[in-house]
What we know:
2 domains, 15% helix, 6 helices, alpha+beta, Protein Transport Mog1p, Chain A, seven-stranded antiparallel sheet
Amino acid sequence: MSTSPAAPVSCSCCGEPLADERRVDVRFGLPDVALGLPEEARRSPGPDALLALEGAGFFVRCLLPVRLSGDTELVLGVWLEVDEETFRRAAAVWGDEAAYPELVVRGWLANKVKPWGAEVLGAEMTGRVSDPGESPYLVEGHGPAAVRLLGEVWDRDRVLGRFPVPLPVAVRADLGDGWSVERSAGLSVRYVDGVDRFTGPDRSVDFTFFQDDRGGGRSAEDFLAVLLDGTPGVPAARQHTELLPDGGVRHAFRGTPGDTGRTRHELTGYVVEADGSTARLFCTYEQPEQHAWALHVWRSLRREAAARELSPR
């Protein structure tokens, strides 16, 4: 998937610029079928919103609005496969102030949009121009998958969390086994050694998971002490410990190592559940004022109650 987000407009915890949280724009760079073709197979009559693929069809860039929970709209810049007549009509009127607003395109969605994937690839839709300065909006679906995609309100975090590109808003990311955390605006996702890693130009977050497999009912605080054994001493002012209502504990400490040739700040944080299930995050960041951001991410790390109930005792 080749996607890119709209440029971000201010994050409440780090001050980074963000876009309007009520609308998130993500663009697909090419139709899916083009990703397996050589670049020389691509032809355009001029506008970069029109693309002909030798032997693979004709495509028009359109905007797909998806309603999300939390009064948020996701607007996807997708490709619609159309017949040659529609393609030539679009090429003829594109940029024409009088004719372009009357353009209607009907075709088939040419991107496997997550989290729906193959369910919506090939879904038939109609697009109309609502703003002469934008591509046509897909406003009508033909068939159950298309109607449902356009008509339903979808879970904001479930949908946005599937895009690995940096987003202009924060989303709650599923880390597996019931664990989740807030993925901050502006951070991309990479899957490294079986777990998610969030990265940005000046900060990153890594995760590690443990399970206390010792029997005998060791407390969360005792297991935390085992995990912290051997770590360098940290002044009390740089440590944070918080007890959880269910018998678990959170602990974090920060430091500024000097072995990299430049100033780099770090926060290591643990969340230990009463059943011994444990997550550790490791944040790095360039500016000391971003410590508030790192603490915010650590405090957002949690495990759902249903997952705790299924854990071995």
